[in-house]
Design a protein that fits this description.
By secondary structure, this protein is mainly beta. The chain has four domains: about 120 residues, Beta Barrel (conserved putative lor/sdh protein from methanococcus maripaludis s2 fold), CATH 2.40.420; about 90 residues, Efflux pump adaptor protein, beta barrel domain (Elongation Factor Tu (Ef-tu), domain 3); about 70 residues, RNA polymerase II/Efflux pump adaptor protein, barrel-sandwich hybrid domain (OB fold (Dihydrolipoamide Acetyltransferase, E2P)), CATH 2.40.50.100; about 80 residues, OB fold (Dihydrolipoamide Acetyltransferase, E2P) (Beta Barrel), CATH 2.40.50. The chain has one helix and 36 strands. The chain has a six-stranded antiparallel barrel with strand order 2-20-24-22-21-25. It is elongated. It starts with a helix and ends in a 10-residue tail after the last strand. About 30% of the residues are buried. Pfam families: Beta-barrel_YknX. Keywords: Coiled coil. It comes from Neobacillus driksii. Its main location: other. Belongs to the membrane fusion protein (MFP) (TC 8.A.1) family.
Length: about 425
């Protein structure tokens, strides 16, 4: 009998200890759930930005064709106001080509001078006929004849390379001579950069439309990012941009918006627009590197701001919940109406209703057992999802995208 009594006592003790442990945990969990999560209104610089990803490209990256050849002017035989007869010499080139007057008339303007270059089709001068019709005389007109004794050519369907003055990898300035042809015409670099390919050698016959070289400028780089249709209306040429690259994690590059696409690309019902950003100082960036760009839309110094989830909406009213406590340590909140200014995805400016350091309640992490979980709750009930966006919100910008608050059922706790 004593044995059974002892066993019964042990069972009762174990049961009581288990009940105490479970009840203690329940109380602890309830205590965690009862604790309100708060933060304080901060004062400082608040920035609104639109971001996107892209890759580095060269601003100057183009082919050079033989159609860009020029003839150098040796002499100009007329001046503005001169009267000429059909066939009179107007311009003579170094290779012996001569431009003559196509008809009787008066020279109204002269566009070239001795030593200047004239590309195929460029205007040499303008002449007015007896009917007072003014027309240009260009290189390549039938009025430009070839001196057969010089073996010259006006640049027909093909040219013969005489001298190639550059090689692949050379860094050249705009206007540098690339190729001299046997007809006396030359091919100059239209832009500065590096010769990345060269497809002509001395003695080669080159079609006038053929690509002779390719020039890339590695010192002037840009990145093109895709911006959501909700944000692109805030982007404008000239806005400052901060750029980061995956290859240089600890370095930030500066830039500015140079172009905003007028036509978007639709994917799964959402349109994005290309925004081109010139990189001010590319440093060691290389073409093809991936980038993240943050376009500064708006900023304000000394702004009072709180997390976006701390602000609730009820119709046209926006308000925050300010925690209070009574003498008996009972926790409650006051509903404070606020006015908001600029905001990004993380913070919203409070222009009226709060001061720096004021405490506000924010949706807290719901506890499950003794571990924090990701569910959002308001004190006293579930917190319904919703989005708050300030009047000048940066849209889908900034870091993260906290969910803002809709008005809890029954309004805020406590009085105004």
């Amino acid at each position: 009998m004593k044995k059974w009594i002892i066993i019964t006592v042990i069972i009762v003790v174990i049961g009581g200890a288990s009940a105490w442990f479970l009840l203690g945990n329940t109380d602890q969990t309830q205590s965690v759930e009862a604790a309100a999560q708060t933060t304080t209104a901060q004062k400082g610089k608040l920035e609104v930005a639109v971001s996107g990803s892209g890759s580095v490209t060269a601003i100057t990256d183009q082919d050079v064709t033989a159609a860009n050849t020029i003839l150098v002017v040796d002499s100009v035989s007329v001046a503005t106001g001169d009267t000429v007869d059909k066939g009179d010499t107007l311009v003579t080139f170094n290779n012996g080509d001569v431009a003559t007057a196509p008809y009787d008339g008066e020279i109204t303007s002269v566009s070239v001078q001795s030593g200047s270059g004239a590309s195929q089709g460029s205007i040499l001068l303008r002449i007015e006929d007896e009917d007072e019709v003014v027309a240009p005389v260009t290189r390549g007109d039938s009025s430009v004849s070839t001196d057969s004794s010089s073996g010259g050519s006006t640049g027909g369907s093909s040219l013969t390379a005489d001298t190639v003055s550059v090689k692949e990898g050379d860094v050249i300035e705009a206007g540098a001579t690339l190729v001299t042809f046997t007809d006396g015409s030359i091919l100059q670099a239209p832009v500065a950069g590096t010769i990345t390919s060269l497809s002509v050698a001395s003695g080669d016959s080159v079609q006038s439309s053929a690509t002779v070289a390719h020039i890339t400028n590695y010192s002037t780089l840009q990145t093109t990012i895709s911006v959501d249709e909700l944000d692109v209306t805030k982007v404008a040429v000239g806005q400052a941009v901060k750029i980061t690259a995956s290859a240089f994690e600890d370095e930030t590059f500066e830039g500015s918006v140079t172009k905003v696409a007028r036509v978007g690309t639709a994917t799964n019902g959402v349109s994005t627009f290309d925004v081109t950003v010139q990189i001010t100082d590319p440093k060691n960036l290389k073409i093809g590197m991936s980038t993240e760009a943050s376009i500064s839309i708006e900023s304000k110094e000394d702004a009072i701001y709180v997390p976006v989830e701390a602000v609730y909406t009820s119709g046209d009213e926006k308000y925050v919940l300010v925690p209070t406590s009574s003498d008996d340590s009972t926790q409650s909140t006051n509903k404070i109406t606020v006015e908001t200014g600029i905001s990004n995805d993380t913070f919203v400016e409070i222009t009226s209703g709060l001061a720096e350091g004021d405490s506000v309640q924010i949706p807290r992490v719901q506890s499950s057992g003794n571990s924090s979980q990701g569910g959002m709750m308001m004190p006293g009930g579930d917190f319904p999802g919703g989005n708050f966006r300030g009047e000048n919100s940066g849209g889908r910008s900034g870091v993260g995208a906290p969910t803002g608050g809709q008005a809890p059922s029954g309004g805020g706790q406590g009085g105004n």
